[in-house]
Amino acid sequence: MVNELEFEKPVVELRKKIVELKEYTAKADVDLSEEIEKLEMRLMKLEKEVYEHMKPWDRVQMARHPNRPTTLDYIQYLFTDFMELHGDRCYGDDQAIVGGIAKFHGLAVTVVGHQRGKDTKENIRRNFGMPHPEGYRKALRLMYQANKFGRPIITFIDTKGAYPGKAAEERGQSEAIAKNLFEMAGFKVPIVCIVIGEGGSGGALGIGIGNHIHMLENSTYSVISPEGAASILWKDASLAKQAAESMKITAPDLKELGIVDEIIPEVRGGAHRNIQQQAENIDAVLKKSLKGLVKLDPEQLIQHRYEKYKRIGEFTDLTELVGANK
Questions:
Q1: What's the rounded Cα separation, in Å, for the pair 211 and 109?
Q2: Helices 226-234 and 240-247: crossing angle, nearest 10°?
Q3: DSSP helix/strand/coil, 103
Q4: Is the pLDDT of residue 282 over 70?
Q5: 51-109 pLDDT, tens per residue?
Q6: Antiparallel, parallel or unpaired: β 97-104 and 107-114
Q7: What region holds the CoA carboxyltransferase C-terminal domain (predicted)?
Q8: pTM surpassing 0.85?
Q9: What are the residue ranges of helices labelled H in the chain?
Q10: Cβ-count burial of 52 within 10 angstroms (0-12 exposed, 13-18 middle, 19+ buried)?
Q11: What is the SS3 assignment for 13?
């Protein structure tokens, strides 16, 4: 069953009404086709109004939707011959990150991504998609392998953040993420990162340094959750909605700021409505990205990555500032 969000209620109620009328028509042998047609037209207009004018907090809720497709969901539609690889060869196998080798339209690639669960039991096993340091070390091991054999790297980002527990800190959580950032910056193969849900803090950045960064239309990418920001700024987590609007964490905002390269459109009502169609939308953007990047030689790829991150943000030349104040 698909869980519905607060802002979707008018759409959901109208959908239910249409289903009820169709069922009544079938059972009572009454022709209500004209009324149903009118309601379906109204539904189309309402869906357009609701889903094309979503506010930042609505997008946050959509990114967290319990039925939102995960990395493994997309892998089965986007790639062939996927072989999952396990373990960091140091401590263990963190199931909050999955990865392996596969083929994308015949091209050998390495795929790495955060993995949430679909129910309580799996979420506990996957640690709710929050990796321990061994997860980032597993990801780095697979990326080292990709770099050695010249395979493009594709990452799927979907985590609230790296696990902040005592055990994770004892095993070097910060060091593991920092090393991934350092090493990914210098890999000599194309790296394409796609934010498919929540992109939270350093947990997202740990597999998020790439030549291209793309985001699904209703995903988020942020240094902290809206609830966390509200707690720090206003000492009140209930102001998360206000924080979400101020933080510029949605795909349209990040595209405007130059952090994201391309926004991947979602099917109406969210990616969970039609995973196959959503995968096709991702496929088109991914194909376009790799087509351009595979033409670059190793040094050009590193320079391309450097230039991308160099352009992010706004800078002021202090010498000009001092001169203007004289």
A1: 15
A2: 100
A3: strand
A4: yes
A5: 877 899 999 999 999 999 999 999 999 999 999 999 999 999 999 999 999 999 999 99
A6: antiparallel
A7: 35-292
A8: yes
A9: 9-28, 33-51, 56-63, 71-78, 120-125, 133-149, 166-170, 173-186, 201-205, 226-234, 240-247, 251-256, 275-293, 298-311, 318-325
A10: exposed
A11: helix
